[in-house]
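Cont'd.
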Amino acid sequence: MQKKSIIQKNSALKSESPIGIFDSGIGGLTVFKALRKLMPQENMIYFGDTAHLPYGSKSRASIIQFSVEIARFLCQQKIKALVVACNTSSAVALSAIKKAVSVPVEGVIVPGAQTCVRKGFRRIGVIGTEGTVRSGAYAAEIKKFSPGARVFEVACPLFVPLVEEGWWKYGVTQEVARIYLKPLQKARVDSLVLGCTHYPVIKPVISRVMGKDVSLIDSGEQTAQEFEKTLESLNLLRKRTGRGWSRFYVSDDPERFLRLSRRFLGSSILVKRVIKKNFE
Amino acid sequence: MQKKSIIQKNSALKSESPIGIFDSGIGGLTVFKALRKLMPQENMIYFGDTAHLPYGSKSRASIIQFSVEIARFLCQQKIKALVVACNTSSAVALSAIKKAVSVPVEGVIVPGAQTCVRKGFRRIGVIGTEGTVRSGAYAAEIKKFSPGARVFEVACPLFVPLVEEGWWKYGVTQEVARIYLKPLQKARVDSLVLGCTHYPVIKPVISRVMGKDVSLIDSGEQTAQEFEKTLESLNLLRKRTGRGWSRFYVSDDPERFLRLSRRFLGSSILVKRVIKKNFE
């Protein structure tokens, strides 16, 4: 993030303004939760692109188009900064989003990758959607600072629907994890990046399969920490005490989002549908 | 289908024109395959709406909007008749599609339901996506002609990604099938409708779990048979002998469609991407 130029561009941004967060659907709520925990005083607007979910199996061009549209919509809601809480979008659309809007933008890839570098891991596993893995974004970011590290990336498309079914404790989820993670066990990784915001929900299952010696990196948590530092350095943290408000938008089926969100957040929220032509 | 009025409306339709087939993605290829087998001489245009797949978890309003757009696009390609090879779209968008276009339209729900009625089944299981099950379309259609029949519907959202992963013979697919189909076994169904065009691919797994006494109804196969009769009665069957051509369009990621299509068709095809604004 080019902090100096952002400060110049955004002198009008106010610390009272909300933070924008978006994801292809429900998974980004794990990042929302991490942000909420760190910064309870902030106002937050979350957008789930449920009309196009999942992004993981879509093309680069489509992911860029959807992401930029949403970033623009959130800027119309006067956000002060944006978190791209979707690994697939962070992997392929981050620079397009930064070009399209004038607020600070944070993706989930760089904080996750930098954590691996900082902790000195040498044999790093990355799991994510087909789109994230195909992009090679984690490997590229890790190798920038740790060129000698080996990175092993595996796409796990069934994890998202298993999480959305709520089958977190089913034996079948563990069996699927065993199949997907086998090549990473064989590669004797010392760490594993959860490169999809749905995955923290089944962290205990992944941890059981990989064993205690493998460190799991939750990109969402790392992003929340990094984002707080960025807001602080830009003097954009909300000054008031007391809990900030949260607002949720989706591009399709608010009822389904609401039902699933209870599983992610453990509490009820209000969700509003935005028709696509209204946010283009 | 209102055959008489359709004949009047479509006096210009020529038997040489292609058949249009559409699905949210790849699953409709099981219907395409059934149509090809029955009518090798026909020309066919297939559209997979891969930018919006899967339809199963989308809202009614969105499914109607996507379906009508595609039906119009296919009519611009001068099709003589249309098969909606997607259960979710057939369940919620069929009447909207029929209003929007002037060619004969066949969905997959009615032929599947009518087969159950004709065969005299009394305790009918239906499996499909969340959207299809929520619509209750199979139960409504079956009860029209067989009001005393009991219909038990179960959504199986994991079947689609399991099929798309190619895990057709994995133990985990059988385990998922056991979990989903348990209530239908308890209900002692005498038949089971495969109410999603992906499911015929894992028919052996479903059959093994349900046992030999339960008849499996493949809606796609039934639809192909019904559609052939309709074309014949409208004098729209292609007269020439020799194999007809096939053309494939998708709204996103032709490479992925191509890769998966090999698993469905066992042979290679050519796929073209249609940008959304071009077909609106």
